[in-house]
Structures are given as C-alpha cells and as structure tokens.
Amino acid sequence: MTGGGERERSMVPRAEFRSYYGRPILKRPTWKVPDVPGYLFLGGTAGASATMAAVAELTGRRELAGAGRWVAAGASVAGVAALVHDLGRPERFAHMLRVLKPTSPLSVGSWILAPFSTLATASAASQATGRLPGLGRFAGFGSGVLGPAMCTYTAVLLSDTAVPAWHEAYPELPYVFAGSALTGAAGAALLCAPRADHGPPIRMGLLGTAMELAALHRVERRLGLVGEPYVTGRPGRLLTLSKALVVAGAGLSLVSGRRAAPLLAGGAYLAAGLCTRFGIFAAGIASAQDPVYVVTPQRQGLGAAGLP
Amino acid sequence: MTSDRNRLSGPLADPTADAGYPDTHPPRMGFFTDTSVCIGCKACQVACKEWNLVPAETGELDLLGQSFDNTGALSANNWRHVAFIEQTVTPDRPPVDLGMPAIGPPAGDASDAGDGQVRWLMSSDVCKHCTHAACLDVCPTGSLFRTEFGTVVVQEDICNGCGYCVPACPYGVIDIRPGDGRAFKCTLCYDRLGAGREPACAQACPTDSIQFGPLEELRERADLRVTELHERGVDEARLYGRDPQDGVGGDGAFFLLLDEPEVYGLPPDPVVTTRDLPSMWRHAATAAVGVAVSVALSFLERGALERRKP
C-alpha cells in the first residue's frame, strides 16, 4: 500500500442534503473489532475447508482431508470464541439457541455454526486420537455439508441491517464472501497440505479469486453514492489491498518449482481474506456514521416514487 | 390478505394479532407527538428517566453547543430526546409593533435590517414502535417481543447483548448500554400500560404535545390537527410515520413535523431491512451452492475417484 496518497474519489456529486447538526441518523454498530470481522473470516475459511476436506476424503486425498479438518476445527472454534467475546453478556451465549427465528440471520447462523463447529471439532478430535474413526468420518461429512452455508450466511448477517453500504450490497455480498472463503480455505491448504495435494486447492483459489473480484467489481459499479465507502478512505484501501493480495495469491499458486511459492500464495490468500472482511465491515460503519448515505438515497427514492 | 410479504413489510392491520395474541387483545397503543406545540421543556425526558430508572449518560455534564440540546440523540440511556432546531426564516407577514419597551440596537440599526427571523423547532423524539420492527425481527434470542398493546419491548433478562438490533433499527433508536452490555430503549411504559396508566412522558407533557392513546384514535386526531394547521396557513405541517403504506408499515409512535424529517434527525423514508430478507436468503443459498460446486470442480481430474482404492 502506498502511504500518504489519499485516493478519495467521489463517485457521485454530493447533492445538498439537510441533517440535524450533521449527526448520524443510524446508530454505529456495536459489534467489536476484531471479533466480528475476524469471525467473518474464520467462519468462511472453516466452512470452505470442511467442504474441501469432505471432497478430499471422497477422492482419496487423505492428507488434504486431514489438513482441511484441522483448519475447519481450529477456525470454527476460534470463531465461536470471537462471537462469544463480542456479546455484551458473554455468559448468556446459550440464549442464542433459545429460539430459531428465520427472520434473524443471527439466529439461523447460530443454528448453522453450533452443529458445524461441533462436527468439525469431533472429526478433528477423532483424527487426532484415532478413536471412533467411523463417527469421525461421518462428522467430517456433516461439517462438509454445512460448510457452504457457513461461508455465505454471514453476508445476510451484515445485509439484514439498516446500514446503507451493507444493505444495498445484499445481492453481491454472499458471492464476495463465498469467493473469499474459497481463497481462504485454499490458502490454508497450500500452507498445511503436502505438495502432491496442491492441485485442488490451487483450482479452488482460482475459482474463488474470480468469484470475489467479479462480485466486488459489481458492488463498486452498481451502488452509486451508497457504494462510496467501499472505494474511499480506510475501507477502500483495505479492499484495494485485498484485491491485490488475492491476485498475487492466484499468481503465486501457479508458480511451479519454487519451494516458497505455495507458502507465499497461501499467506497472500489468507491476508486477502482478512482485508476483505475488515474492509467490508469498515465500509458499513462508515456508511452508518454519515447521514448523507441515509438521507440522500431515501430522498431520491421518494422523488422516484412520484414517477409513474 | 395477510400474505407472507405483509408479515415482513407493507400494511398490516393488526401486528398484535400477527404476533399470536388472541382476538381479545387490547387495541394497539401509541404516541402522537405534535411538535407544533412542543415548548422544549424536556419534562418528558426527565419523567422518563425518573420512572424507568434510566441512568445518566456520563458522569459529567456534556454541553453539545447545539441550541438547547445537550442530549444529542436517542440512546440506551435516553428514551426521549428533545431536538432543538434554530432556523432563519423569511417572515410571511410584517411583524406587528406592539410598542413595548425593548433592549437591543436602536431602530434603524443596520443589524436590525436583516430580513430573517428566527424560528425555533422543538420535537420530542422516541422509539417508533414500528408495525414491522426490524429490531424485533433480527433479535436472535427472542428478547425483543411484541406486547399485547402492539408495542415493542426488550426483555432484559433474556438479552445477551449481541447488538444485532442496533444496526437493524432504521431510526437509530436502540443501543447497547455501555457498562451493562444489554440493549435498551423506550418500552412505551409497558408497566404503566399494564396498570391502565399512560406513559410517564405523556403524563408529564404540559402542552399535550405528547399524546397517548389507541393508535386508530391518535391517527384521526392527527389528521384533524394537520388539516386545522393547513387551514391556518401552516403549509409546512406534515405527519411523519402516520402512513401504514410506508416502509415500516407505519409507526406506533408518529409525529406532526414542521419541516423535513431529516432536519429533526429522522430518516426521510425508512424501510424495514427484513423486507428484502427472502431475497437475501436466496442469494446466500445460490452463493453457497457456488461454493459447493467450486470445491467439487477443483477435484475434477483424471482418476480422482479411482484414487480411493488402495
């Protein structure tokens, strides 16, 4: 990242808008950093890793499956810890499973995360101890089936809010997170799995890179004023860095014959995943903090409503 | 008539029945805040704090320098908030000289020749108790619930402080209380309503700017009031949150305003975020399938399945 150079480009000319002493209309989300953006990254990486491990098991790539199980278990347990730590009353974390509400992405997500992390941990524990191998394999497949949902439900979590940049991006965010989860899992596998098993993660990474870049591009192009936080300020720099890292990861993963290349590719993919989640999180906060992103689009909507 | 769509957004005649209460439930209760008679006394803020034992925001006095407003916004510790807006307006008729003794610059002074007059808008803001309440929809624990009066209340013994309601609210009302960790907001004095009394703010209001009652009755009263003001030449009078067709299905607490909503710190056209939730889930499901297919494709190679055999 080049220091100093503020690339504040305004995509849409600022219309006149009125406000109450320039104060924000929306409340700043109280979700803590790094807990929640960190969880978005860990949950996605864990989900795609579990699915990768399940398919690796089916195709006889035992060592890749083993690595994927370790990553899925470790990342999901760390993710659960981050989410519990984020609560205002951590001792009441079990209240998350008090009800199942389809209108609450956090409720649905809790009911995905709880079995996913249990199954992922069980399969990793079975693998580590060599006990109950049949049940361990079954748990691994279970977490592999839940894995894709782990990757994308978090996009609904952010979009189902009044935060303009998150809500308006709801058609694209699941694909951004899906792509980023694929590159995250690919990155972890390139770091942990033996070189003979690098074929599938390399291809996963390339598919993930394409998906994430295409979806991010659409967010930037489609949203107009509300998309501004994605390309300006700190969130804009984080997302630019993320795109550079994911491209670097994809390129490095294709370099053959160099011992360090897969390690560097893996590191770049994981760093890109972190930048994507922290960038998108920060863009939402920025859009909630400035009343222009609430007032101007709503005014334009009211104007458009008058047209036939 | 009550399609799935109306359960998430759009007009909904009886949110209380929709929440599962039997037909014998009391009528939906609410507030009509007529800001044209608000005098900015903040008695509502004080009464609310006193009755509900809401703690002070900070240990020290925080002077914002924003007219007489030192509260700033609704928060976990401010369930009523009086906004003060000072505006320079062109008088619609020449001022009448009452011949009163006055202080200030002598008549004809240049500073007196300005064509502006100051207009002071005051408005007591509160939780809107939406027909389609996003805070309630997204609450994962069931802590936020719809009462038999159609209002929206947090059960503090259930709330685990996940904070989802905070960014969900399109009005920026509910918040996490620092040091406590749980979410708090106006309960429309649920305890007082249960005992057949009116909320503390409405009882304390000396000008009846805050009116409490069955929502249907308040809507009729508000319609009459806005017609009356228009007849008296106050063309800028408008109702905010009155319309059951709006983005949140109408507010349980609505307002008569004398300027655009954003001038008072209110969103001009709020929409309950869960209106788009079915579409969000569809996109997420498609993207999840995309993950599964991408992983499967990555393993496609000659002999992938034969490899299983030892």
Automatic annotation (TrEMBL), chain B:
Residues in 4Fe-4S ferredoxin-type domain copies: 29-59, 118-149, 150-179
* Residue positions binding [4Fe-4S] cluster 4: C139, C159, C162, C165
Per UniProt, where does [4Fe-4S] cluster 1 bind? C38, C41, C44, C205
GO biological-process terms attached to the record: cellular respiration; formate oxidation
Q: Where in the cell is it found?
A: Cell envelope
Protein residues bound to [4Fe-4S] cluster 3 = C127, C130, C135, C169
**Keywords recorded for this protein, A-Z:** 4Fe-4S, Iron, Iron-sulfur, Metal-binding, Repeat
Q: Tell whether Iron-sulfur is among the UniProt keywords.
A: yes
What molecular function terms (GO) are annotated for this protein? 4 iron, 4 sulfur cluster binding; metal ion binding
Q: Which InterPro entries does the UniProt entry name for this protein?
A: 4Fe4S_Fe-S-bd, 4Fe4S_Fe_S_CS, FDH_Electron_Transfer_Unit, Formate_DH_Fe-S_su
Query: Signal peptide: which range, if any?
Result: none
Gene3D superfamilies cross-referenced by the UniProt entry: 3.30.70.20
Question: Which cofactors, by name?
Answer: [4Fe-4S] cluster
The name on file for this protein is 4Fe-4S ferredoxin
| Organism, scientific name | Streptomyces diastatochromogenes
